[in-house]
Amino acid sequence: MADVEFSEHGTRNRGALGTRLVATVACLVAAACLLPMLAVVLAAVTGGTDTISHLMETVLPGYALTTAVLVVLVAIGTFSIGVGAAWLVTMTRFPGVRFLEIALVLPLAFPAYVLAYAYTFILDHPGIVQTTLRDITGWGPRDYWFPEIRSTEGAAAMLILVLYPYVYLLARAAFLQQSASAFLAARALGKSPWLAFWHVSLPMARPAIAGGVLLAIMETIADFGTVAYFGVQTFATGIYTSWFSIGDRAAAAQLALCLLGFALLMAVAERMQRGKAKYYQAGKSHASLPSAQLKGWQAAAAFTLCAIPVLLGFLLPVFILVQMGMESEQNLLSRRYIGFIQNSLTLAGTAAVVTVFAAICVGFFQRLRPGRVSSGAGYMARLGYAVPGGVIAVGLIVPFASFDNALDAWMRQTFDISTGLLVTGSIWLLVAAYMVRFLAAALSAYEGGQSTVHANMDAASRSLGQSPLGTLRRVHLPILTPSLLTALLIVFVDVMKELPATLIMRPFNFDTLAVQAYRLASDERLEGAAVPSLVILAVGLLPVILICRQVGRRR
Q1: What is the spatial distance between Cα 452 and Cα 457, in angstroms, rounded to a whole number?
Q2: Residue 293 — φ and ψ, nearest 5°?
């Protein structure tokens, strides 16, 4: 009996210790996610106002207007293409629909700045399109008008082509989950298929569609590579210019605060409208929406409308990049490029492991100790998805640079030793920025898998003497392996594509494939930029293929 009591006492001690450990790590992760936002606010408030006052009189209104125009254009474009394509492949049957319902996801593999390099190569003045036009017509450079690809509208088009899959995936999932009863009732009351869609199906799918459009908007305001390459002045480019060109950290923090406020405002607005909107499925859940068989010109029109985004957003850019890469002098197997690949894989792999570990701690803490503290930790951990990479970079560099400078000054004064920059400019600070930026995606994947683990499994594990950490290790993690691998892959690919935080925070002489592609494109060496861009695209196809397999199983 004494041995049993001792064993139970030891189990309780281990359980309490494990709970405290998980809670501590989860709270530290939440604090790390909140730190960049607080640092940006503090640096913006305490910094000088000379530069920002000058910017307000000169370029700041332009930053705000251009960012707003981009947001509106991308929101309209992604909504139109995403919802339209989702409705066609869900509600109609026509030749090629099985291929298109999967292929419509493929542009998600492209970073927008890579798409910009490809289209600039063929649509710019010396490109093949305008050159062919001049050869056929005999016109000179000033004899005709051609749409300017390096413009706000051009940047919006690039972003629309790579971001509409967010809306498409969520809208299609919402349409597939809808019951046919409400739609058929509207048809029975004399509504045409179009009016039934507009008045019944679309409102019921509004929360999912709004979520997809919000994701597209967040990616738009966070984008740096596309707008910087096209010379479009937004808050993202303004932060980078203030940091590097002007050298004014306070002005960069103040611009970052403006962008942070706009991003959080959009996130709060979406959360408020989603909280007020409540839709209930009428009828039996297995009664899916009916599909209309299209023939003739209607089938051709539906195929064309769905094929255009795939052609422009994936097939044509891949063909262009391959042609560009073959004409370049870049050797992917050279020591220099091997270094870029190693750096990219090191950052992406390390960040993926750290981020998924943080997601496990936060998610398990919410399950282990539900309440205000764990809910608050989960909410703070998700803040990063609404914060652009440039803002996170500024928010982390400002406090850690101050810490490094203070430590160096104290060591010089006390021991006559210079410590230099211990944290600032290190790989680990950059990995922390990636964790803050992409933790929401990893946490969503983890919680999606965790929802399948019944609470009875936890109770059974505890009754068999397992501590909370033992339950996590022996019960949860084996079941959640597919979800964890998905989270690892998503974060890995996102880090491979990430540009603004990497440009600002990377260690000296530590370039990645994304940085190399941006540098070559900035020097107008587009053929060379195609080589690292193709590698980034190839890696980005991995999660997209997984998503396509899931889409293909919906029916």
Answers
A1: 11
A2: -85, 115
Q: Which helix (H) or strand (E) holds 292?
A: strand 292-293
Backbone angles phi, psi at 147, to 5 degrees: -55, 135
Nearest to 86 by CA among 162, 182, 169, 25: 169
Task: Measure CA 201 to chain center.
Answer: 27
The per-residue pLDDT for range 271-280, each reduced to its tens digit, is 666 555 554 4
Tokens of residue 475, six digits = 């019960």
Residue 129 contacts residue 122 (beta carbons within 8 Å)? yes
3-class secondary structure, 145: coil
Give the C-alpha separation, 338 to 531, whole Å. 12
The length of the chain is: 555
Q: Residue 464 and residue 8: Cα distance in Å, rounded?
A: 11
- pTM value is 0.81
Q: Which two tokens stand for residue 473?
A: 């290790």
pLDDT in tens, 423-475: 787 888 999 999 998 888 888 777 767 766 767 777 777 777 777 777 777 77
Ordered structural domains, the chain, with CATH: 1-46+329-524 (1.10.3720.10)
DSSP alpha helices (H): ranges in 451-525?
A: 455-463, 468-471, 477-479, 481-497, 500-505, 513-522
Instruction: Report the sign of the C-alpha dihedral through residues 545, 548, 550, 555, in that order.
Output: negative
Angle between helices 335-368 and 427-450 (to 10 degrees): 50
Q: Which residue(s) pair with 93 in the sheet?
A: 293
**DSSP alpha helix (H) spans, 316-388:** 316-327, 335-368, 372-381
Burial class (CB in 10 A: 0-12, 13-18, 19+), 318: middle
Q: How far apart are CA 241 and CA 228, in angstroms?
A: 10
Torsions phi, psi of 421, nearest 5? -95, 100
According to DSSP H, which parts of 189-224 are helical? 193-196, 202-204, 206-222
For the purposes of burial, counting CB atoms within 10 Å of the CB of 510, is it exposed (0-12), middle (13-18) or buried (19 or more)? Answer: middle
Judge whether 180 and 287 are in contact, CB under 8 Å. yes
In DSSP terms, 179 is beta-bridged to: 288
95 — phi, psi (to 5°)? -55, 130
Dump pLDDT digits (tens) for 139-153: 877 778 888 899 999
Taking alpha carbons only, the member of 124, 109, 59 closest to residue 521 is 124
Structure tokens, 146: 């051609």
Tokens at 109, concatenated:
């593999």
Cα four-point dihedral sign 133, 134, 137, 142: positive
Buried b (16+ CB within 10 A) or exposed e, 223-257: bbbbbbbbebbbbbbbbbbbbeeeebbbbbbbbbb
**Cα dihedral sign, 342-436-236-44:** negative
* pLDDT, tens digit (0-9, with 9 covering 90-100), for 398-407: 888 888 888 8
